[in-house]
Description:
- The protein has helices at about 5-20, 25-40, 45-50, 55-65.
- About 25% of the residues are buried.
- It contains four helices and no strands.
- It is an all-alpha fold.
- Helix 2 packs parallel to helix 4.
- Helices cover about 60% and strands about 0% of the residues.
Amino acid sequence: MGWGSGGYVFEPVARALVKADVSEQQQEEILTAVIRALQDQDWDTEYDSLQDFLDKPAIVRAFANCGIRWTDLS
C-alpha cells in the first residue's frame, strides 16, 4: 500500500520555492531530493502533484529525474 499524503509535503515546498524566486536549477535540485525522499516512503500520488506544476519546467524536470513523466500516462 502506498503513501498518498506526499503531496501535502511536496506541494507547499514547491510553491514556496517558486514564490521565493529560487532559480530553476536550484528548484530542480531541491525538489529532486524531496521527491526521492517521498518515494522512499512509498509516495504513490506523484502524478497528482506533477499535474499541478506542468507549467513549471524545473519542477517537471525534477519529477522526470525521479522517473515520473506526464507523458507516461498517455
